[in-house]
Amino acid sequence: KQEVTQIPAALSVPEGENLVLNCSFTDSAIYNLQWFRQDPGKGLTSLLLIQSSQREQTSGRLNASLDKSSGRSTLYIAASQPGDSATYLCAVRRNSGYALNFGKGTSLLVTP
Amino acid sequence: SAVISQKPSRDICQRGTSLTIQCQVDSQVTMMFWYRQQPGQSLTLIATANQGSEATYESGFVIDKFPISRPNLTFSTLTVSNMSPEDSSIYLCSVAAAYSYEQYFGPGTRLTVT
Predict the structure, then answer these.
(1) A31: which chain B residues are within 8 Å (Cβ-Cβ)?
(2) pLDDT tens track, chain B, 114 positions
(3) Which of A81, B37, B75, B110 is 20–30 Å from A38 (CA)?
(4) Coil, helix or strand for A89?
(5) How far apart are the CA of B22 and the nearest CA of chain A, in angstroms?
């Protein structure tokens, strides 16, 4: 069974800092990995999708990397802003089926 | 990306009753899914809603408790039947893009069962 773990569970940083969120998964037989953002009381917003054959993806100030063999992904946020405050979720899709296995998320607070 | 809407956005229901949640997508999609997010827990896939056939349920979820309809390629409903307080969760609809399989989520329905 695929287990997805996100560390840290919560993080508070001052505005302007660069930060790294970590995601690990137990089964390396994945089809892709997706990072989401969830604001309080809202649904999920897709941030980045990394296919299993890729090493990284970038969108603006966000960069996600994937090391499938070691079962790890990181989300790098550059020059953090208060608007980045949200819960960040990592999810992996198995090679079989369509289910996404989610971590419990990292709750990020960026203070002005 | 698809634009997904859900109704209702939230509801408070009594034990033993049922609630039907609607999911509408602004474009035709083949793959549509229903997830549950219990308080403090990860999102969990309930089922894949198949157009024109019965939904495919994940382990631990059954059709009698979570009947799903998918009458066309833009709409689906999830019913939470005979509710108990343990069903208090956020229920989310999602769709997958045709080639990349990137998944997009609706805003969710926050259900509280008293």
Answers:
(1) 101
(2) 789 999 999 999 999 999 999 999 999 998 899 999 998 888 999 999 988 888 999 999 999 999 999 999 999 999 999 999 999 999 999 998 877 788 999 999 999 999
(3) B75
(4) strand
(5) 15
